[in-house]
Amino acid sequence: MILLQLLINGLVTGCALGVVAISFSLVYSTIKIFHVAHAGVYTLAGYIAWSLSTRGVPSLLAFAGAIAFCALVGAGIQQFLYRQLERRRASHLVVLIASLGMLAVIQNLIAGIYTPNILQFQIGWSQTTLRVAGVLLSYTQLLTVAMGIAAYLGMMFFAHRTALGKRIRAVASNPFLADITRLEPKRVYVIVIAIASAVVALPGVLVPLDFGLQPYSGVNALLTATIAMIAGGIGSISGAFFLAIGIAVVQNLSLLVIPGEWSIGVTFFIFVIFMLFRPTGLFTAR
């Protein structure tokens, strides 16, 4: 029974991390920026939703407000940070350091405003549980799984079936050619980070319903998501999503044989194995 519970918990966590992975993959494969500040946007979503809900805003409206706010923050980071660095022909290392700096600014602003203490949502339905085949599941966990699957399917449909999605893929494939054919890569970059920030806000508001809010919690999520993106194949939405689920399941099942603080080592072990035998990733994007 413990094995089944750990397996289900891993699937739930994997769905949340999978959404972080596909949103991060969208940014990296299109703009070629290691957008570390994405972890800060993920964390910020939960705090915005918490602030709105504690002021009496209905939970769904609070979540929607947090998602919209994060989309604006992401667009602002691209417009006022990354684009300015691009104009100055900054190297990839400089952009990475700037993104790390933005992450530190977001985290410390959150800690300064809300304190580093753990905050809990006061939403009654989020703690309601039900037992299915001997496994306990909360409404939040069920919603997280549904959100993860819906986000994955929605992203696949968006990337392959919509005009904007095809435009983003064209820009990702050849920015120079996209520029001379008037696809406006710079505008696409703003749209991409706004979309990715809105998508990562989905687990950003759901995961804290179970585990609470902490200013620095987004880093571990982004670390696992980054490994899933690389091992799954850069540019592959399916690879990033399903590798994140696989890594989360393995991490949870490893608790049967090793202490919890060592489970992150399993993630790096999987990553090293993939890099040795499949350096291009499990699902190589065309």
Rg over CA atoms: 19 Å
Alpha-beta classification: mainly alpha
CATH class: Mainly Alpha
Net shape: globular
Share of helix, binned:
over 70%
**Tally of strands:** 2
- The termini sit apart by 42 Å
Taking pLDDT < 50 over at least 5 consecutive residues as the criterion, the unreliable ranges are none
Major pleated sheet: 2 strands, antiparallel
Give a structural overview.
Helices cover 74% and strands 3% of the residues. By secondary structure, it is an all-alpha fold. It has one domain: ABC transporter involved in vitamin B12 uptake, BtuC. The protein is globular. The termini are far apart.
Q: What is the strand and helix layout of this fold?
A:
Blueprint lengths: L1 H30 L6 H17 L4 H29 L4 H23 L14 E4 L2 E4 H23 L1 H11 L1 H6 L4 H27 L6 H15 L4 H17 L9 H15 L9
Offer a quick outline of the entry.
The chain has helices spanning 2-31, 38-54, 59-87, 92-114, 139-161, 163-173, 175-180, 185-211, 218-232, 237-253, 263-277; strands at residues 129-132, 135-138.
Give the tags.
286 residues, mainly alpha, ABC transporter involved in vitamin B12 uptake, BtuC, 2 strands, 74% helix
